[in-house]
Amino acid sequence: MIRGVIFDKDGVMVDTERLFQELWCQIMGEKGQEEHREAVTYCIGLNGPATQARLDEEFGDGFDYWSVLREVDRRTKATFDEQGVPVKPGLYRLLDDLDEAGLPYVLATSSRRESTLSQLQSIGVLDRFQDIVTGDMVKKGKPDPDIFLLAAEKLSLPPEECVVLEDSLHGIRAAYLAGCVPIMIPDLQAPGPETKKQYYACVDTLDGVMEIIRKLNGAT
């Protein structure tokens, strides 16, 4: 029985991963370095320290992670201020359906709290979530399960009664290790054989999620 839902943010609720990826590669090019797009894509779903460790390894000596991150943040904010935060298809309908079904939901994102609250406020859903768990609230980020275990705790539910909505390979693995029910909505990363073993279902958009939850709860 599914009694609660845990949302990832980037790539699931908001269409931000493409912008982040393009800005990282753009700024690295401006600094005269190769863009290393595959390495940047690999970091989707990771928190700040894990991303820094991976990119430090990839780019080597002379790479200043924090200066690049600050510039990514600056350009991201400028884009969102001008164009708004792009919302993924089906988000508002799914939130309405969950409310109607009486299923509570929380957010569990590797992003930092300040930017998370700002984006949720911008798209008008900040007050709809029962709680918000961000990457700086756990010692180990995805693909470790800590963030989803904390999110289930915020729902006062055992992990096995929580669906997790994720777009990243690291996120699906974290949800699987937490004992939750992972549903993948792919964005920039396609699931490989290992990820397919870890998720319960895979759908194209959030519009396909409620049907899966109803089936898990025995609806015909």
- Helix tally? 10
Give the number of DSSP strands: 6
- Head-to-tail CA distance between termini: 14 Å
Largest sheet: 6 strands, parallel
As a percent range, the share of strand residues is 5-15%
State the order of secondary-structure elements, H for helix, E for strand: EHHHHHEHEHEHEHEH
Low-confidence stretches: none
Q: How helical, in percent, are the residues?
A: 40-55%
Q: Choose one word for the global shape.
A: globular
Q: Rg from C-alpha positions?
A: 17 Å
Lateral arrangement of strands in the main beta sheet: 3-2-1-4-5-6
| Overall pLDDT confidence | 93
Structural class: alpha/beta
Summarize the structure.
With 220 residues, the chain is an alpha/beta fold. 48% of the residues lie in helices and 10% in strands. The chain contains ten helices and six strands.
Primary descriptors:
single chain; 220 residues; alpha/beta; six-stranded parallel beta sheet; 6 strands; 48% helix; globular
Can you offer a commentary on this structure?
The protein is α/β, with parallel strands linked by helices. 48% of the residues lie in helices and 10% in strands. The protein has 10 helices and 6 strands; from the N terminus they run E-H-H-H-H-H-E-H-E-H-E-H-E-H-E-H. It has helices at residues 17-30, 37-42, 48-59, 65-83, 91-101, 113-122, 146-154, 169-178, 193-198, 209-216, and strands at residues 4-7, 105-109, 132-134, 162-166, 181-184, 201-202. It has a 6-stranded parallel sheet, sandwiched between helices. Helix 8 (169-178) links the parallel strand 4 (162-166) and strand 5 (181-184). The protein is globular and about 55 Å long.
